[in-house]
Specification:
Layout (H helix, E strand, L loop, with lengths): L1 H4 L5 H11 L3 H18 L9 H5 L5 H7 L6 H8 L24 H27 L1 H9 L1 H8 L12 E2 L8 E2 L3 H13 L7
Antiparallel strand pairs: 1-2
Keywords: Membrane, Transmembrane, Transmembrane helix
């Protein structure tokens, strides 16, 4: 679709192509979740908060997931660039009956190796950016027991639960103020929708 529509000046076509490519956002989420699971499985640390690689594969908010998906809108340009060296075989000039194309030499699969590398690299860069920009927030979350459950002991990839950090005298950790209803929802989420790593 992109090949035939890229020359049109219709901005609606461009918007539709971007929305089709934005579906790869779920691939980004899957990769982050899978890498977090692999980091836990291969890590020798079994204590809460000791495996920094597991804690790295978390987003501070949904905003960073969408920032990571910004590159996804350029998927078609990347595919076109990877396939820019090609030969057009027309049925008007050649007999196409004897020509076959291997599946792995096809238009999209040739570009998928480089595209997957670019997407994973983009994901890692955005995770690093999230860590640098929100480093104080991440330090507070790592000092809170509920935040540690999300960061280190589950496959959840979003650590933002609407934390309101409060100062408690004579307490060394990070205390949060959270409504009871929200706390029940968080408990339900942690017990039903995430894979736990062992506490």
């Amino acid at each position: 679709m992109y090949f035939w529509n890229k020359g049109s000046g219709n901005s609606f076509v461009v918007l539709r192509m971007w929305s089709i490519n934005l579906r790869l956002l779920w691939f980004n989420c899957f990769v982050a979740k899978f890498m977090k699971w692999v980091a836990n499985a291969l890590g020798t640390t079994r204590h809460n908060g000791r495996n920094q690689f597991v804690g790295f594969f978390n987003f501070s908010s949904v905003t960073y997931i969408y920032i990571a998906s910004a590159l996804l809108t350029q998927r078609d340009n990347f595919t076109e660039f990877g396939n820019s060296d090609n030969t057009v075989v027309s049925s008007k000039m050649y007999l196409l009956d004897g020509i076959s194309v291997d599946l792995f030499d096809s238009w999209f699969l040739r570009a998928y190796g480089g595209l997957a590398f670019a997407l994973i690299l983009n994901l890692l860069v955005v995770l690093c950016l999230d860590r640098v920009v929100n480093r104080i927030w991440w330090q507070h979350v790592a000092e809170n027991s509920l935040g540690r459950q999300l960061m280190y002991n589950s496959t959840a990839i979003i650590s933002d639960l609407g934390y309101n950090f409060v100062d408690v005298p004579h307490y060394g950790g990070a205390a949060i103020s959270i409504p009871a209803r929200a706390l029940c929802t968080i408990q339900w989420f942690l017990t039903c929708y995430t894979m736990k790593f062992g506490l």
